[in-house]
Design a protein that fits this description.
The protein is mainly alpha-helical. Helix content is about 60%, strand content about 5%. The chain contains six helices and three strands. A three-stranded antiparallel sheet has the order 1-2-3. A hairpin with a 2-residue loop joins strand 1 and strand 2. The longest helix has 21 residues. The two termini are about 30 Å apart.
Length: about 140
């Protein structure tokens, strides 16, 4: 995986947060998430023995932001604010969530075992397609023990 391409996807992920927080006047997490993401990217580039760990952490950050973009657009009673229900607000959240997708895709690709298109997180499909039966799924020993 190319470091400059990963750096670009980390920057796109953070840019989505920056644009959202600037236009929505949210200032609590922008800098912290940017510094953490930058630190994980630098660690990914410099500590090759820890790339899997850094990929998992970057995936976690991007998935958390995607979930946040999806949940905080809805007027849910447990939120400490009431989000506006306008087309502009929905569009901004689609942009914010969408800006996480390149990093999510790249980290899933990084975590997928080499030469496999159907194994992730210890689950292997013995047959691919829309009609996979439970008997056609097995776990690697190290992932299911």
């Amino acid at each position: 995986m190319s470091p400059w391409l990963l750096g670009l996807t980390v920057a796109v992920s953070w840019l989505g947060l920056v644009v959202h927080n600037y236009l929505e006047s949210v200032d609590s997490s922008t800098f912290a998430v940017g510094i953490i993401s930058l630190g994980l990217f630098i660690a990914w580039c410099t500590i090759k023995s820890r790339r899997i760990l850094m990929a998992r952490l970057l995936l976690f950050i991007a998935l958390t932001q995607l979930l946040g973009a999806a949940v905080t657009v809805m007027p849910l009673s447990f939120l400490p604010f009431t989000p506006s229900q306008t087309l502009e607000h929905y569009t901004l959240h689609v942009f914010y969530g969408g800006s996480q997708l390149p990093l999510i895709g790249m980290m899933i690709k990084q975590l997928r075992p080499k030469g496999s298109t159907s194994r992730l997180l210890g689950i292997e499909l013995l047959q691919e397609g829309p009609n996979v039966l439970p008997s056609q799924i097995r776990c690697r020993q190290d992932a299911c023990s």
